[in-house]
Amino acid sequence: MTKIVIPIKSDVIDNNTADFYDFFGMTNYVSPKKVGDQLAKVQTGDTVELQIASNGGDVFAASEIYTQLKSSTAKVSAVIQGLAASAASVIAVAADDVKISPTAQIMIHKAWSTMQGNAEDLAHESQVLSGIDESIANAYEAKTGMKNSDLLNLMSKETWLGANDAVKYGFADSILTFDEKEPEKQQQALQAFAGAGTVVPKQAVTKWQALMASITANKAAPQNDNKITSQHDLRDQKLAILFGKK
């Protein structure tokens, strides 16, 4: 019997964005593929432990991870080491048993986006976001047993739950305790919290995918001088993507 530890650290991102992160050497993230690769190792009798310290990220990626975990044959536990915010809180409640550090926090809120458009576009986006909120609340309801309406009310206020409140509301099952023989675990929780970050915009991922397609086309037609042909050009393209330049 083996315990498979899956870090839920820093950004929660979709698989396409994960390819972008890997390309730039940004390895501190969690994606459905990363979690799926670990769950694929599960054998009869194995357990899974999520170690969570994340500001959240892509709610649809979190939903996919939630479904993967709930579908696993292994017993899944979660240890909230620092912060389980937003999308990361959705992943946390997929666990059969959730423990939270006495210094940790859970943050829940309603979904948001950076939508632009006319009145009809924004009205439609409002409906989409309301549907996403309901989906998130469903996951919380399954864990906590609270009413969906009460959960939506907490989400609308952007509620932060310390360890005691997390247990009180049912988001966590117990509070971690430490003895003098386990100082390294407390240090690990502090370091994990400090590692949370901000998700790269989808526009940057789209630009990167176009860049990679251009490079592939250039390899197939090296005689075309208009294609990217040097490492210097590639570096400039990378920097342009990172800084949001065209």
Automatic annotation (TrEMBL):
Family recorded in the similarity comment: Belongs to the peptidase S14 family.
Keyword Heme: no
An individual GO BP term: proteolysis
Swiss-Prot/TrEMBL keywords: Cytoplasm, Hydrolase, Protease, Serine protease
A GO MF label: peptidase activity
Pfam annotation, one family: CLP_protease
CDD domains: S14_ClpP_1
Transmembrane intervals: none
Keyword Protease attached: yes
InterPro entries (alphabetical): ClpP, ClpP/crotonase-like_dom_sf, ClpP/TepA
Protein name as catalogued: ATP-dependent Clp protease proteolytic subunit
